[in-house]
Amino acid sequence: MIGDGRVTRLRGRPLWRPTCDRSPRLVERLVGMPLPPVGMAGFDGPLNLSDFSMSAPIVIYLYPGASTSPDDGDSSLLMDVLEHRAFRDHQPDLEAMGSSAFGVSSQSLESQLQILVDHAIPPRQLLRDAKLHLASELGLATFMLNGARWYHRLTLITINGEIVKAWATHPARTAAQAVAWMQLRGT
Asked: pTM of the predicted model, to two decimals?
């Protein structure tokens, strides 16, 4: 069943294939960096994740929000939904550790609203970084599609405003991995 991490192919093609943009070197470089003060649009108004991360550990999962991507091929929107649902379902676990998760994309709030409604995603969970300021500040890889720039999938955990963990994995497993890592750390 899709969503449990066991299905890896759809119509003969891989559902998710990481690109070289999230090499171990990039991930290692991000760990220890401060989360930059970047304002993002949300359904509850603007939010600066660096301010928020000073008071609680947070998980930031970057997702394309595009109809296709180098990682997901034509299954990009499906992978987005799997990731959103996984974080929605693990939100009680994160809250028990005093943490929250935020999905960040350059996708319009109007497009995100449709996802919220169709899949019962908490409105606070999704944010828009329209100009990809976070990517610019952290040197993250993006890709171009139909004249727009989009994020590659990447997950960050921040504690006290510092990135302490970064990785790219199958979107259906990201939330569970974040919870397990934080539990092992005693966060």
From this structure: 0.85
